[in-house]
Amino acid sequence: MKKMIYVSFVFFVILSYYSCSTNNESANNENTDTITSASHKLVWNDEFNYEGLPDSNKWSYDIEGNSWNWGNNELQNYTKARKENAYVDGEYLHISAIKEIWEGKNYTSARLITKDKGDWLYGRFEVRAKLPSGKGIWPAIWMLPTDWEYGGWPASGEIDIMEHVGYMPDSIFASAHTESYNHAIGTNKTAGIYVGDCESEFHTYIVEWDKKEYRAYVDSTLYFTFKNEGTGYKEWPYDKRFHLLLNVAVGGNWGAVEGVDDRIFPQEMIIDYVRVYKKTE
To answer: Could you tell me the residue range of the domain that residue 227 belongs to?
Structure first.
């Protein structure tokens, strides 16, 4: 239930740009830990070296929110097991947003999830991707709780590894959403980073998550850190298992701030690989 309400999406955008300018100054020279077989163990991955639909042993399709616009006034219907919206070509996964009438809406896309097929408490999550472009497009790489043990959104948390909106073509955002920190009450924790070629080149979007904090990177650049304050689940619900989501939304309260340009379609997010590591003890 991505961003259940967008009461303050304008605040979110302003805050994101502010965080971009403040957080990056101290983050640009901080790099990710070197991933070696001695320090990390690969525990789950999809290299997309096959053809057809995404591997059903690793991915499911989330279509539950089609009837209520996913809480964001999004314009697409997500489809299930439809190659036009999600397919693997032997090298990459393609998630495609298409302008077409489908069950009462004017766009289709796909939202892939690892729920009950890949669920983790802590780890390093890497997704190498090239992003779609154009006004109205809104791709995301993110995580939701598998069991919702602290209650519905935002109480059980959300981790946004990468969000991008087409009307800001050179910007990438990472965010944390909890009961105490979320955009609906104007306390959202987020940061942005300039990535001028994110729509034309592949970049690796990373979260490193442990019991003390989680950190978001683009390639080797750290630009967002969210810390465990030690005050309970309202500030830190990130002590339960989460799963990954990959999707391309159309429109929505944030994605369509400057409208939707129908001339851009079809658009796709292309994913090279998804890898999950655990630190070795």
So the answer is: 9-279
- Out of 25, 51, 149, 163, which one is annotated catalytic? 163
For residue 3, tell me if it sits in a domain.
Answer: no
Long-range contacts of 181-184 (CB under 8 A, 24+ apart): 181/235, 182/154, 183/3, 183/6, 183/7, 183/8, 183/9, 183/11, 183/12, 184/4, 184/5, 184/6, 184/7, 184/8, 184/154
Q: What is the pTM of this model?
A: 0.90
Residues of the chain with pLDDT under 70: 1-34, 36-37
158 is catalytic: yes
Tell me, what's the pLDDT at 34? 58
CA distance 206 to 276: 10
User: Position of tokens 């989460």?
Assistant: 242
Name the nearest CA neighbour of 209 among 132, 281, 120, 274. 120
Q: Is residue 2 part of a domain?
A: no
| Whether 208 is catalytic | no
**Catalytic-labelled residue, pool 47, 84, 149, 158:** 158
4 occurs within a structural domain: no
CA distance 147 to 29: 37
- Say what the pLDDT of residue 5 is: 37
Q: Using DSSP, state whether 237 is helix, strand or coil.
A: coil
Write the CATH number for 146.
Answer: 2.60.120.200
Q: If you ran DSSP here, which 8-state letter would residue 121 be given?
A: S
Q: Which pLDDT tens digit goes with each residue over 170-183? A: 999 999 999 999 98
Q: What is the number of other CB atoms lying within 10 angstroms of the CB of residue 121?
A: 14
**Three-state DSSP class for 263?**
helix
